[in-house]
Amino acid sequence: MSCVVEVEHLSFSYPDGHSALNDVTFSLGHGQKVALVGPNGAGKSTLLLHLNGIHPRQSGSIRVSELDVEGKNLPRVRALVGLVFQSPDDQLFSPTVFDDVAFGPIYQGLSAAEVHTRVEEALEMVHMEAYIRRVSHHLSVGEKKRIAIATVLSMKPDVLILDEPTAGLDPRARRSLIELLRELPQSMIVATHDLPMVRELLPRTLVMDGGLLVADGPTAELLSDPALLHDHGLEM
Amino acid sequence: MHANFLDPFQSRPSLVHSLDARVKVVLVVAFILTSALTPTGAWPIYVMLIAVIFSAEIVSELGLAFYMKRALLAIPFVLAALPVLFTIPGPSLLSLPFGLQLTQPGLERFISVALKSWISIQAAVLLASTTPFPDILVALRALRLPRLLVAIIGLMWRYLFVMVDETLRLLRARSARSATAANPALRPGGKLTWRARVAGGMAGSLFLRSLERSDRIYNAMLARGYDGEIHSLPVPAVPPSAWAALTFGLLLLAFIIAIGRLIY
Amino acid sequence: MFAAPLPMHIPDGFLSVAVSIVFWVISVIVIGISLARVNRDLGERQVPVMGVLAAAIFAGQMLNFSVTGGTSGHLLGAALATILLGPWAAVLVMTCVVAIQALIFQDGGLLVLGANLFNMAILGPFVAYPVYKLIQRISGGKPWGVFVGGGVAAWASILVASLSCAFQIALSGTSPANVAIPAMAGIHALIGLGEALITVGALSLVYAARRDLLQTGSAQPVRNNTAVWVGGSLLTLALVILSPLASSNPDGLEWVAEQAGFLETARDPSYNIIPDYVLPGISNEATATILAGVVGAFIVLAAALALAYARRKRSA
After folding, report:
1. Band of residue C197 on the pLDDT scale cut at 50, 70, 90
2. Across-strand partners of C66?
3. What is the pLDDT of residue B22?
4. The pLDDT of residue A84 is above 70
C-alpha cells in the first residue's frame, strides 16, 4: 500500500539539548484519519511542524506523497501538507476572507481565473461560500477555524494536519467542525486533547509522551486501556 | 515557540552582576562618554579603555568571546565612516584608482571612530547582559525618568515577548503556505506589491489585536484597583559598597579623560 | 533576526559629543510635551495602550517581505503609528521602541540615543502627520486619501529621518556631507518604498476591519495639533532644502563640525609629558601606546587572576 505520510526514526532535539522527538516511526495510508494525543510538551507540535519542513529534520526520514521532506522539495511539500494552526488568528492576516484563502494559490503563481476557482471550491468544502467578501477579523472563532481550513484546502493538499481544531469552540461550533472533518476526503492527522472527538471521528490513534511514540493502534482499543491512559496523563 | 531568546540577560554569580543597577547604568554611560571624548589618534587612551572594558567583561564571567560576538552588531554602520579615509586632507599614504588618496589623518579618524563604537557597544552589551530588566527599570526611575514613561516601558517589556511570539507565529503560518504549484512551470512568489500588502496585512492585524488586548489589560488593571496613578515601592538606598564602586569608576574615567587632555 | 531593519540606528562613536547633547536636549523636550499631551487625551488608559502598542511595533518590525535576491522590505512603523494613534502618542510609542532597542539590544548607541530618538521617534511622526493630513484633506475624505496619504507619509517619514541622520553624522565630522547625504537619501528613498507598501497594506486591513479608527479616529483626538503641523512641515522643508545645499557645499558643515567637535579634536601636542624621543627612531606616540598596552595588559591580567581566585574560593 502506498502511504501519504511515512516517518522513519525521526529524532529532534532543541539547541538547549532538550530532546523533543525520539526515534518516531509511523505511516499514514491514503484517506486515513488518525489522532495524535498526549500531554502538553509530549512533542506533538514539534512532530507536526516537521511534516511540512518548518522544523528542519535532524535525523531520520520523512516522506510525503513520495517526496522527501527536505531542501528543494520543501516548496512543493508545503502545498501537499495543509497545516492548520491552533490559533486561526495566526493564519488569517488579510483584510478579507477571499484574500486569506487566495494566499496559497496566488503565491503558487496560478492564473487569476484559477485562483478564483480554487477559493470558491475551498470555501464550498467548508460550507462558507457566503463569507467570501467578509472581513476575517470580525468572524467568530468557529467561523475563523473553518476559514483557516479553507486557506489550506485551496492549495489542494494530500494530507491535512490540524493542531487542536476544537480548542476554544462552544459545543455547537465543535459539533459542526467535527461533522466537517468527517466529510473532508483528505487524509488527516489531528493533534488534540479532545478524546470524545477522537473516539467518534478518528479510527486510529497515536499516543506520544516525552518525545516517544508510546502507542499506535485502533482508537477503540487504546481508549479502553485505563493503564495506558493513566500513564500518559489522558482522561476520557 | 517562545521568544525568550530575546532577553539578553545572562545570569551568573559575578561581581558585575551583583553591582547595583543604578551605579551600572551611570558607569556605562560615563564610560561611553569617556570614549566619545577621547581625541582622534590618542591610541594609548584607547588601549586603556579596552583594558578597562575587557577587565569588566572577564569579571562578569560571560567570557570575552560572548562580548566579541555581540559587539559585531555595530559593524555594518562603519561603512558610513569609510569616506573620511579619503576626504580628510593630509599626507597621502596610498593612491587608489579614481583619484582617491588614502590620507594619514583620514585613516586615523576612521580607526578612531571604529574603535569608539566597538568599545562603546561592549559597554552597552555588558549592561544589558548582566542586569535583569526590572533592575534597569528601577535604575531609570531612580535617575528621574518620568514615572509614566517608566510604566509604559515596563508594560511594553512584559508584552514584548507575547507580541514577538505572535509575530513569529504569523510568519510561520505564512511560510507554511508559501508553496509551489503542481505545474513546475509556474513561478511562485506572487508580485512584489502583493507580498508587501500581505506583510502589511500582518502588521495591521497585529496592531488591531494589540489594541483589543490593551483594552482587556486595562480592564484587568481596573479590576485590581488601578486609578491611573503609578504607584511603586520606594527605591532602596544605594548601598555603601555601590557608592564606593561608583566613586572608583568615575575617578578612573576622569583620570583617563585627564591623561587624554594632557597629552593630546 | 531582531536586528535593525534599517541602517538608521546610529551606534555610539559616530556622533560628536556636542551633536549628541544637542539632540538629547531637543528629544527630551519633545518627549516631555508628548507625555503631557497623551496624558490629557488618553488619561489613565495610556499606560496599557502605549505599552502594548510599543511592543506591537517592536514585534512588527520583524515582519518582512522578500524583495529580490535575498533582500527584504521591513516596517519601521512611525507613520503607521501616527496615522492610527495621532502624532503625540506615536512619538511616545516610537520612543519606547527606540529606547528599548538601544538599551537592551544595542540597536543604536546610548550616548547618541537622543539623536536616534529625534530621527525615528520624533521626526518620523512629525513628518508623517502633516503629509497624511494634507493628502487626506485634498482627497475630501475619500478612501484613496487614506491609502495615498498613508503611503506618501510613510515614504516621507523614512526619507526625512535618513536626511537628519546624515546631517548628524556630517555635523560630527564622521562622514563628509557630500557623500553621506546623497548616499543615505538614495538608499532610504528605496527603503521608504517598502515602508510605504507595507503601511498601505496595514491600512487596508484596518480600513476593512475597523474603519472607525481611520475616520477622525476614536483612538486619536483631533484637537489642536498645530505644533505638529507647523513643526513637522518646517523640519521637513528645512531638511529637504538644506540637503542638496549641504551636499554641494560640504565645507559649511565641515566648518560647523570642526567648531562642534573641539572636545574630541586632537590639540597641538604641546603638553607632552614624555620626551620626544625615548629611543632613537621611536616617537613618543608609539612609546606611550606601548606603555599603555603594558599597563592595560596588567589590568586585564589582574582582573582574570582576581576572578580565578574568587571562583576557587567559592567552590572551596
Report:
1. very high
2. C72
3. 93
4. yes
User: Is the predicted pLDDT of residue B103 greater than 60, yes or no?
Assistant: yes
The CA distances from residue C278 to A30, A219, B44, B259, C286, in Å, are 87, 90, 16, 19, 10
Mean pLDDT value across residues C169-186 = 87
> Residue C229's CB: how many other CB atoms inside 10 A?
16
Query: Which residues does chain B have within 8 Å of residue C265's beta carbon, measured at their own beta carbons?
Result: 39-40
ipTM confidence score: 0.91
**What strand order describes the sheet that includes A59-64?**
A19-29, A3-13, A59-64, A67-68
Q: Which residue has the higher pLDDT, C81 or B183?
A: C81
CB-based burial of residue C223 (10 Å sphere; 0-12 exposed, 13-18 middle, 19+ buried)?
Answer: exposed
Least confident residue range of A115-119, A138-142, B76-80, B175-179: B76-80
Judge whether B238 is closer than 8 Å to chain C, CB to CB.
no
Closest CA of chain C from A93, distance in Å: 8
pLDDT per residue over B56-68, tens digit each?
A: 998 888 888 999 9
CB contact under 8 A, C109 and B218: no
CB C205 to CB A138 under 8 A?
no
Q: How many CA atoms lie within 13 A of C241 on its CB side?
A: 6
Q: Give the distance from residue A166's alpha carbon to the nearest chain C alpha carbon, in angstroms.
A: 25
Amino acid at C46: Q
Q: What's the CA gap between B120 and B26, in Å, rounded?
A: 14
Interface of A with B in 174-193 (CB under 8 A): none
Q: For residue B13, which residues of chain C lie inside 8 Å, CB to CB? A: 314
> Which C residues in the span 186-215 are in contact with A, Cβ-Cβ below 8 Å?
204-205, 207-210
Give the distance from residue A134's alpha carbon to the nearest chain C alpha carbon, in angstroms.
9
> Which residue from C175, C300, C307 is facing B81, i.e. has the nearest CB?
C175
Nearest to B119 by CA among B196, B194, B49: B49
User: Residue C200: closest CA among chain A residues belongs to which residue?
Assistant: A95
User: How far away is chain B from the Cα of A216, in angstroms, using its nearest Cα?
Assistant: 27
CA C211/CA C51 separation, integer angstroms: 23
Calculate ∠ Cα C285-C287-C289, nearest 5°. 70
Chains contacting A (3+ CB pairs below 8 angstroms): B, C
Confidence of residue A153 (pLDDT cuts 50, 70, 90): very high
CB-based contact, B66 to chain C, within 8 Å: no
- CA C290 to chain CA mean position, Å: 38
Describe the crossing of helices B133-142 and B21-37 by its angle, rounded to 10 degrees. Answer: 80
Q: What is the pLDDT of residue C281?
A: 47
- CA dist., res. C226 & res. C222, Å (int): 10
Q: Out of 3.40.50.150, 1.40.20.10, 1.10.1760.20, 1.10.3720.10, which CATH number does the structure's domain C17-263 have? A: 1.10.1760.20
Please report which confidence band the pLDDT of residue C279 belongs to, taking 50, 70 and 90 as the band edges: very low
CA nearest neighbour of A99 among C152, B210, C209: C209
Check CB contact under 8 Å for B182 and A85.
Answer: no
Q: Is A135 on the interface with C (CB under 8 A)?
A: yes
Q: What is the pLDDT of residues B187-231, one digit of tens each?
A: 888 888 899 999 999 999 999 999 888 988 888 888 887 776 667
In chain A, domain spans: 3-231
- Coil, strand or helix at B230: coil
Q: What is the DSSP letter of B52?
A: H
Is pLDDT of C148 > 90?
Answer: yes
Instruction: Give the CATH fold of the A3-231 domain.
Output: Rossmann fold (3.40.50)
A78 to B190: CB separation less than 8 angstroms, yes or no: no
pLDDT above 80 for A59? yes
What's the pLDDT tens digit per position in C67-115? 876 678 888 999 999 999 999 999 999 999 999 999 998 888 999 999 9
